[in-house]
Design goal:
It is a single chain. The protein has 465 residues and is an alpha/beta fold. The strands form four sheets. The chain has a 16-stranded mixed beta sheet that branches. It is 18% helix and 37% strand. It contains four helices and 32 strands.
Length: 465
């Protein structure tokens, strides 16, 4: 039998084919393994990146939350501060929930206050810029009684009487020198417990004054006038004047001195330093404001003589035929607060509003208020000297750590206060010692209105920088 076969160009080797097939399988397995390894490494790297991103995002969120907490704290802080204090702030820190959060002021326009608040957490930081609109304006406050915020001591043979008035006193107690409560022994006076309240301060009314007196850093006297109607009826711009223009006001020995018998301008007199008011038989008719303190004094040796000091509005109210020129001055120097440009007083219903109610203040000081009563006149029970204060008397801060009482009454005579005496310093008690007699007489509805500084506060906006 003949066999027929075909011949090819390559040798066919079944065993070799099997070897190649095994290598392919192995290569496939290796490649799959490498792919899985690459995927695993990539996944782990991705997870690390995701974790890092999550940690960073968390830290950034915490930093932003801290900045927001700082914003809330700063808002609360600013609401309790005066514009004067806020203007002084440049940088600071807030402590909230055991966190210390720094902030700094940045410029952002007139009447606006901007602060950058920095929150930090885990290496991340966030700056929150806050914008506040803050302004202050005068409003009115009706004072319904006298105030002795630091307490009141009535000692010796002194007496305090009233005609149905109320006084607010620290802890609601009036004491004698032994510390005994004598509140129930006061004639015509109801004693109440004082609760904290806001009152005007000397600095608040500087821009509302008609005449300001102060010393500069070199000790030179600086006198300015403003808030006055000019001769033509317009209001004069603030301008300086010679401090010697009025011989009733002089400076010596660290204090300004007012002499009621000499030439004084009509209106509100403001002093940076302490002022001594020397009362004479010529009535004082002014509002006197001092940052440093006010002491009123009367001459010694006079017997049975009365001395009077009037707030401008009180003079008009108490004296039926009051000479208006004593309140409003003359052409070219008429106070705008409570007078009209023609030199007449504003209507009574307007005297209740600010700034006209500045004229209800007789004395206002941030320091000690000391009132002299003189000494008993004559012999054998003759009529004593009396000093009459018509208007509101305010010591807005008190002596405050100087070792002096916030207010004190000196002498052995008689003091009558036709208005409210408001002593808001909570550190030191008011002292009434010796043989002095003090009478508190109700101020009428108009006379009880006093200016108060109101702050308008608006949180305009926030944004992360």
């Amino acid at each position: 039998m003949n066999h027929i076969c075909c011949k090819t160009g390559k040798n066919f080797n079944p065993a070799g084919a099997l070897k190649q097939a095994g290598f392919s399988s192995l290569l496939f397995v290796v490649l799959v393994g490498l792919s899985l390894t690459v995927l695993t490494v990539g996944y782990m790297s991705s997870m690390r990146n995701l974790q890092s991103t999550a940690v960073t995002a968390h830290a950034q969120t915490q930093a932003q939350m801290q900045a927001m907490i700082g914003y809330q704290g700063l808002t609360e802080f600013l609401k309790g501060q005066s514009i004067e204090n806020i203007n002084k702030i440049e940088t600071g820190t807030l402590t909230r929930n055991a966190m210390t959060i720094p902030f700094s002021k940045v410029s952002c326009g007139t009447g606006q206050y901007c602060f950058d608040i920095t929150g930090k957490s885990g290496g991340a930081s966030a700056i929150l810029r806050s914008n506040f609109l803050i302004s202050e304006r005068l409003d009115k406050k009706t004072q319904t009684g006298s105030v002795f915020a630091g307490g009141l001591t009535v000692g010796g043979n002194s007496s305090l009487t009233g005609n149905g008035v109320s006084i607010a006193v620290k802890d609601g107690i009036v004491k004698n020198n032994s510390g005994t409560d004598i509140s129930g022994q006061l004639t015509g006076i109801t004693v109440e417990k004082y609760t904290a309240s806001n009152f005007i301060k000397a600095e608040d009314l500087k821009d509302q004054a008609n005449y300001t007196f102060s010393l500069d850093s070199s000790g030179n006297q600086v006198c300015e006038k403003a808030n006055l109607y000019a001769a033509g009826g317009g209001v004069i711009a603030k301008q300086t004047f010679s401090c010697s223009q009025y011989n009733g006001i002089t400076y010596s020995g660290g204090a300004w001195s007012i002499d009621s018998s000499k030439n004084l301008p009509a209106g509100v007199l403001w002093f940076k330093e302490k002022v001594v008011v020397n009362l004479t038989t010529t009535d004082l008719i002014n509002t006197v404001i001092s940052v440093g303190g006010i002491e009123s004094k009367i001459p010694s040796g006079n017997k049975g003589v009365s001395y009077n000091a009037y707030a401008p509005n009180a003079y008009f109210i108490k004296i039926p035929l009051a000479v208006i020129s004593k309140i409003c001055g003359t052409s070219g120097a008429i106070p705008v607060q409570y007078c009209k440009s023609d030199g007449t007083l504003k209507p009574l219903d307007e005297l209740d509003d600010s700034p006209a109610n500045i004229g209800n203040i007789l004395f206002l000081t941030n320091g000690q208020l000391a009132l002299d009563s003189g000494n008993l006149g004559g012999k054998g029970g003759a009529v004593p000297n009396s000093v009459n204060y018509f208007g509101n008397l305010i010591a807005s801060s008190g002596a405050g750590g100087t070792g002096l009482a916030s207010a004190k009454f000196v002498g052995t005579g008689l003091i009558n206060i036709f208005g409210n005496i408001v002593i808001t310093g909570e550190t030191d008690a008011t002292e009434l010692n010796g043989n002095i007699k003090v009478g508190l007489i109700n101020a009428d509805a108009t006379g009880s209105s006093m200016p108060v500084l109101v702050k308008d506060f608006l949180a305009k906006g926030i944004r992360y920088m």
